[in-house]
Structure formats: C-alpha cells, structure tokens
C-alpha cells in the first residue's frame, strides 16, 4: 500500500482552517440529526427504561466534541486564547490547558493522516473523517443543508471554504451539484441506477459509447479531460461529467449537474456513497 491516498489532492486544495471548519460543520450536523430523534414520540413505548435519558446524554457528548472542534477552528483562523476564553467563562490559561490535547491531536494528524489496521491493509484516519476526505464531506453536508435548511444555496457549506481568490473569479464558480468517485467496476450499475431515477433507459449502446469516451479522460484536466453524458428523462434531465481519476486508477470521477429535486439529489448522493470504495 502506498503512502498516498486518493484524498490527498482534495485536502491540499483547502487550508487547514477550512478543513477545521468542515469538521465543525460535520459535528454540527451530527448533533442536529441526533437531537431530531428525540422529537419523535411514536416509539417511546418501545424504548427501554432510561433510554431517552441515554439519548440525551449522547447529545451532551456530541456537543462537547463540537465545542472542541470549534476551538480548533478558532485557533486555526488565528483567534487568541484570550478571545476564545471570554466566551467560555474561563481565563485564557484554563482554556488553553483544557483544549491543548485536542489541538495536539489535530496537529499530529496532519503529519500522519492515517494509520494501518492490524492486517496492514486498511487505512484508519487519524484526521477526523471530514478532514481526511473533504470532497465526500462537502457533498454530504451541502446536500444536508439544501434539504433541511430553508435556503436555496446548493453549496452552503463548501462555498464558504473556497479560497477568496477563487470566490472573486467568476470563471471558477462551479456549475455542478453533486460530485464524487465511484469504483470502476461499479460504473455501469451506477449509470443504470441513475438513469432509472431520472426516468430514462440505460441502453447497451449507451454503455459502449460512454466506455469508449472515458478512454483518455483525466479529472486533473478541467478543460479537455472530461466526457459529458446527458440524460433526458421523463421527470428530470441531468448532465453527467465523467473522467478517469488521476489519484486512483480503479476509480472514476463523477459530477452530476442539474438535479433540482431534493429526492433525486438524495438518491444521487446515496449512489455515490454506495458505489465508492477506498482502494
């Protein structure tokens, strides 16, 4: 196994401050999702004695981790311990002592982003998952915000992490909605499933055309390295951009643009997660 991962390029495109903010967003969504389960009363009769108290306790633990990542982010963006401590009802020395272990773990993980399991074959991230694989985290969190928050911004999380130089460049604004990687051997099932969700048929001739067109593509070439396949369905039309992944020979980079319906966006996100594996 090499020392590199398919996620190295994505991490390098974001600053450490942006990665810390992404982890903070991820933990905030985890807290919101866990808290929402306590709002439902229908299944209380099937919950054992003390069960709801246990769930509430888990929220406090998630909230504590959320606070830790908030402090990590504040330190990464240059906030002093004095500035942080004034909101934590403690002095700067106490704040630094309390959060020093978390800061140390964060710094160390950048030097060693992952470790191998006992078999020596599987990578276990030392970085928080959202920082280790930021592309997947951005896709998931953008989708969550678009579906659950009353905003129309489809990149409410990821756009705030982009360098200011890119924000000021109109040509750098992305037109895609959802992107990710899929394993090459899962490529045909992915396209078949996507076509069904869009409301069209995936014909054998489509597969032949796309497979041939993928040859010579390269996702590191933004201008000429991608093949575009359009699906015009009964319910929705989407544009699927495809390219061989430069970071991993057995992966295909996928960008699906034009998916407006929340249900379709959720399905596309599920497909990308289901058909993606770590080499």
Q: Distance between the terminal alpha carbons, to the nearest Å?
A: 9 Å
What share of residues are in beta strands?
5-15%
Overall pLDDT, averaged?
A: 85
Kindly name the structural category: alpha+beta
Overview of the structural elements:
The structure is a single chain. This protein has 279 residues and is an alpha+beta fold. 49% of the residues lie in helices and 12% in strands. It contains 11 helices and 6 strands. The strands form 2 sheets. The chain has a 4-stranded antiparallel beta sheet with strand order 3-6-5-4. Strands 1-2 form a two-stranded antiparallel sheet. The longest helix has 26 residues. It starts with 7 loop residues before the first helix and ends in a 5-residue tail after the last helix. About 4% of the residues have low confidence.
How are the SSEs placed, and which strands pair?
Layout: H1 8-12, H2 16-37, H3 51-76, H4 81-85, H5 92-111, E1 114-116, E2 123-125, H6 129-132, H7 134-148, H8 164-167, E3 178-183, H9 187-198, H10 204-214, E4 227-232, E5 237-244, E6 251-257, H11 262-274
Antiparallel strand pairs: 1-2, 3-6, 4-5, 5-6
Helix pairs in contact: 2-3, 2-7, 3-5, 7-11, 9-11
Key features of this structure:
279 residues, alpha+beta, four-stranded antiparallel sheet, 11 helices, 6 strands, 49% helix
